[in-house]
Amino acid sequence: MTIQEAQQRVDHWIKTVGVRYFNELTNMAILTEEVGEVARIIARRYGEQSSKPSDEGRDLGDELADVMWVVMCLANQTGVDLNAALERNFAKKTTRDAARHQQNPKLKIQN
User: Fold this and answer.
1) What are phi and psi of 20, to 5 degrees?
2) What are the helix (H) ranges across the chain?
3) Would the pTM count as exceeding 0.70?
4) Which residues contact residue 15 at a Cβ distance below 8 angstroms, ignoring those fewer than 6 apart?
5) Backbone angles phi, psi at 33, to 5 degrees
6) Distance between CA 66 and CA 62 in Å, rounded?
7) Under 8 Å CB-to-CB from 66, ≥6 apart: which residues?
8) For 58-102, how does the pLDDT look when each residue is reduced to its tens digit (9 = 90+)?
C-alpha cells in the first residue's frame, strides 16, 4: 500500500465506519496519547525502565500503526498530501544534511 492509498483508506474508513473525523485539536491530543504508548513500550523494552504486568503483550507495531493512522487523519483533514510532503522532506534533508552526518565524529563506526 502506498502512502496515498493509506490516506485514502483512512478517509474511506472514517467516512463509512467512523462517522466523521474528530476535530484537529482532538486528533492532536490523540496523536500525543498514541506517541506516549510507543514511548512506554520503547522505554521498557529497549530502555532502562522495568515492565509492569500490564505492559506484557503490548505490540510496538500496532502502536506505531496507531500513530500513522492519526497522522493520516490530521493530513486528510488539513489537506496535506503526505506522499508529496515526504518527497519534499527527503529533498530538504538530502540538501541540508549532504555531508553533515558523514562528518559527525559521534556517528563513526567503532572497531
Assistant:
1) -160, 165
2) 3-16, 24-45, 60-78, 82-96
3) yes
4) none
5) -60, -45
6) 6
7) 34, 37
8) 999 999 999 999 999 999 999 999 999 999 999 999 999 888 888
